[in-house]
Every structure is written in structure tokens, then in C-alpha cells.
Amino acid sequence: MKKIFILLVILTNGLLPAQQKIQNGENFAIVIHGGAGTILKKNLTDELEKEYKDKIAQAMQAGYDTLKNGGRSMDAVVAAIKILEDSPLFNAGKGSVFTADGKNEMDAAIMDGNTLKAGAVAGVRTIKNPITAALCVLEKSQHVMMVGSGAEKFVKTCSCEFADTSYFFEQKRWDQLQKIKQTEKMESDHGFVSPVEDKDKKFGTVGVVALDKAGNIAAGTSTGGMTNKKFGRVGDAPIIGAGTYANNKTCGVSCTGHGEYFIRAVAAYDVSALMEYKGLSVEQAAAEVVMKKLKSMGGEGGLIAIDKKGNITMPFNSAGMYRGYMKGNGKKEILIFK
Ligand code: ASP
Known about the structure:
CATH topology: Glutamine Phosphoribosylpyrophosphate, subunit 1, domain 1
Number of helices: 9
Radius of gyration: 20 Å
Order of helices and strands: HEHHEEHEHHEEEEHHHEEEE
Strand content: 15-25%
Distance between the termini: 51 Å
Bound molecules: aspartic acid
């Protein structure tokens, strides 16, 4: 009897802090990525490093404020991603990479972990903030994913802002395409494969996962895809379960990296499934997918995730990943390198 009593005291004391946090509304959190890849300190000037960190901080603050004021995790995700899409630093919205035929074709998705509803757009060319189009598909359509001109036509029913295709042009992205094309030409002329120079191997996709005061998780991802992508290629970002996933029972996930591998690994859902069916923690599950499964397939990149208690993890198997988080208790970090 005495043993049972002591056990009960230990158990309830162990549970109290988390419960108190939820009651105090402190248990909200937001985590952000701005892409993974060969991001090395030696290739980044102090000024540029500051620019990246400042922009991530600004986006994170916007999402955090939404959560702090009692807003929905989905709105926090959209608020933060819009800021990153508007910045040419990242491969999403303005500053998206170019396709093989010199166009910007963007993909985005958002998922609500509470209802398991999701919305996604792929290959859109004139929507200023593709994440708002994804939210429009989630909230206003009976579908999950819409592509190209059909998606652009549908989202006119929402207040999504449109932009001319020239708005998305960034010289540095254009130069990256020309460089890859030169490599391809060498390859076909000389019959050998010259690897893309390491320091150019960056995935600048953006993603946000948030947990709100009501305990609802949402995840969103937005991207221009991969430089030199061909003929209507769609990456992992807008594919629910591959690059984006959220479920209140487990976690929310947003990925960045070589999309084809993340699609084949069903990476985002796999993190959730490892938690649901195998009882792994969010940290263990994410590490299993990024450091073991994707790595063994040759899939470079990383992900961010939050579980229902507000635990955060940000693993990556590349040299770096722009990333940051902010918790309801005030804890905050912004990191780039390993
Ligand atoms: N995952 C994205 C894609 O394959 C690229 C990225 O993360 O930057 O489209």
C-alpha cells in the first residue's frame, strides 16, 4: 500500500509541470527551417549570416506573436512562411529557383493536425505567397492538391495576392541555373559526369511547424523546388506525408532536401508513424528517418518537427540547415551550422 502511494506521488509530480504549462498557456511553440545543404561557415560572410538569422528571427516572431495572442497554429505557420517567401534569401516565393526552361514553378502545402485536413498547390507561377494558396485549397475546396493554372484559377476565390512572373526573378538564381546547364553540356560533350560544385548544393525551401495554446499542431512548407527541374516536376514539399505532415496525436513535420528521396521515403509521415506505432519520441523518430533511412538511400537534407507536448527536433544530414525555434516559455535559438 505504502509503495503504491509513493509511486502515485512520483507519477503525479512527474506529470504536473507539463499540465501546469498547458494550463498557463505556455506550451506553445514554433520551429522554422530555411533549407538545408552545403552551408558552411567559410562560404558565408558575416553580413549574409546576419541577414539569414535576422529574417528567420522576423518570421519566427510573427508566428510566435500569433500563437501568443491565442491564434491558430495554421495562421502562425502562414504568417511566418509569408515573410520567408517575400525574402529573396530563400528558395520560396520571391527568389525561387529556375526550372530547366527558365521559369519559376512553386509548390506549397499546409496541414492541420487537429482535423487532418490538408491543402497543397504545385507548379504555380503567379501567386505571390504560395502558402496562402495552400491554405485556400485546405479551407475552401473539397480537394487536397491543385496544380498549375487550375490552382491559380481556384485560389482567386480567396484573398491570395497575385504577382507577375517577373516578380519572382532573382539574378543569383538565374546564374545558378546557367552554371548547372554548363555542367550538363560538359557532360554530354565529354561523356563524364561532373558533380555540381559542393558549395552550390543548397536547398533553400522554407518550412514552419507550430503548436498553439489549444494544443493543435500545424505544418507548412513552401518551395521553388530544385534548380533545373524538368517538365512539371513536383517535389516533396506539397506532397502530404512526404515533405509536410501534421497530426495532433503525434507531431508536425516540414522537410527540406532532395525531394525525390523524401517522397520515396515518405519522410514526414514516417516520423509520425514511428511515434504512433513504435512509441518513439519525436527526436528518436526524426533521427531514424533523417540520419538512417534517408542517409542510407542517399537523400540529403533535414526536417523540423514538434510533438504534442512542444518538444522540438531539427535533425539534418547535410553540412548545415537554416533553422530556429521559439517556445512559450521564452526559450529561443537560431542556428545555421552543425
Ligand atoms: N525539397 C525541395 C524539393 O525537392 C527542395 C528543397 O528542400 O529546397 O523540391
